[in-house]
Input
Amino acid sequence: MKRFVTHPYAVLTFTALIWGANAVAGKLAVGHVSPMVLTMLRWLIAGLLLLPIARPHLERDWARIRQHKRLYLFLGTAGFTGFNALFYLALQFTSTIHVAIVQAAMPLFVFAGSFLLFRARVTSLQLAGFALTLIGVLVTTAHGEPSTLLHLVLNRGDVLALVAVGIFGLYTVIVTRRPPVHWSSNLLALCVVAFVASLPLLAVESAFGATRWPDAQGWSLVVFSAVMPSIVSQALYIRGIEMIGANRANLFTNATPIFAALLAVLLLGEPLFPYHLAALALVFAGIVLAERGKRSERIASHPKTPVSQDAA
Output
């Protein structure tokens, strides 16, 4: 175990696997626990489990967390509750593979948020990459039939997944503004906000008579969601960033849709159609182009200092 947590590629690959498994868990939860109950219980249990870990650090970090309370209210409400509630709701209406491919468009939303909020620069390679990613999502939405786009009636689940990914893209941009506190204090604060924010959604679900409290399988999925995607993956991702840096660590999140699609085929028996493979290829070709665009921008903004003739 000690050797595992010192190997960044193993840590970050396992993190992406957990995130991919979260999509499968959300699909398995259909009929066993309703989306808002799953969302509420996930953050409640995660917060309770984090409390003894975060307690030694809270006294030092609490002042900074309070100072940034509006930021935490937004991040916990949108990034944790909003994203996951819509994510689980989307899986009620569409396949895990569809959600996984839509989720692969995350870099497009991150770019849009960075540009709109912070006027981030963009290169031609990045634009080409984002265009390919968007085409991949459209291929998925149209089920591989381009003519379908002319009279497209969007699947409710695909729309919910797109909105969820858009929200999490905005969260990804803004979370960089969080204060420098211990990871457990940060995560506990977000879990508390997420739990409180989930209560009105649970009330709405109950008002529509759609509430379903977990059965035995539902509880196992609730516990999995509270422990693995909510705590373990977050801790491992932070560990990976510490070892190889945020930019390189972020590349591993691109493996999440691949793991989700593979697990959906293996565990759920979902069919993998040729248009799924084409869409995944387009999405990841777009990501590669966008990442090359980022690197070329960094090289252009930090050119090597030429060696003078005097120094030769």
Notes: Residues 4-297 form one domain. Residues 136 and 279 are 4 Å apart (CA to CA).
